[in-house]
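Fold Annotation — chain and its backbone

Encoding — discrete vocabulary of local shapes
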Amino acid sequence: MKNKNYNMELIRTVSFVMVIIIHVTNYYCRAFTNIKTGEYLFSLTLDVVSRVSVPCFFMLSGALLLGREESLKKNGSRLFRFLAVLVFWSIVYYFFNVYYMGTDVDLKAILFVPAEPHLWYLYATIPIYFVLPFFQVMCRGMDEKLDRAFLAMASIAGVFLYFSSLIQEEAYYDVPIIGDRIYTFYFFMGYFILKYEKRITWSSRRLFLIFIGSTALNVILTAFISYVSGDHFERLMEYGCPLVAISGLSFFTWIIRMGKGRIEFGPRAKRWIDTWCRCSFGIYLIHILFLDNFKKYVKPWDLTAWAAVPLLTAEILGVSFLCIYLLQKLPFGKYIS
């Protein structure tokens, strides 16, 4: 406990709140033509700001895991846990969607299509954990020169993947190690940022301004394209978009460097943060049950976004936290949350 890095825990705490904000604001942003301009811009701004959360989750995992020297058994246990979580929650959302929401779900396609869209995170994480032991060995064998070369290669590959997707093209072969998505890039970036944190010369103020500037530009461009096209434009909010990457990397580095790399909280605050972080993964898994229930009965134009976004986010957070907190009291609870 004494050695816990609360900069990391702060990133985790903020990020899982942001994930819920994304899912709530998406509901309003996608009702672009049916809500007022002010409501749309309010929802869009919160949505874009919160987009740093997913890059931060992958960077946290990379920062915490890539520098370790672990046995195959330990890595296997971690992988098995994520597979068990995927199976359990796929079954939960299958019954929820089929028998409550009235939508069709093909549970036989679980290997290829998530039973609920937000479970995509598990589909992106499990392949990374599958090859994690080899990534760990690779990182231990790389010197600073190779680190820099790898970062340059991964950055170029990430930018190429995004812009090629904009013209609906893709590489004939995926880039080895990085693959065809940006998530492995973030995984490695978290490790390198933590490894070389002491050498980062940019001030916290500059990092924060980069985060704000990149986010603001994204909001402006997305709003402009949406109004010109007459429909909500989401491509600039994808996690492979360079603007989102810049925002995520600067935000992550900014918090990592707070308090000279070691934020200190009082005992009571630490207990609260520890409890919230222990439940954060489970909150992510369960919160869609409550959000979809809201969507079933309330349309975006029924309740103004100015009130619905903050109130719904707080309500979903509270109910999800309570459910997961109680679930983890059960003997099997920690294995599925």
In short: The chain has a mean pLDDT of 94. The radius of gyration is 20 Å.
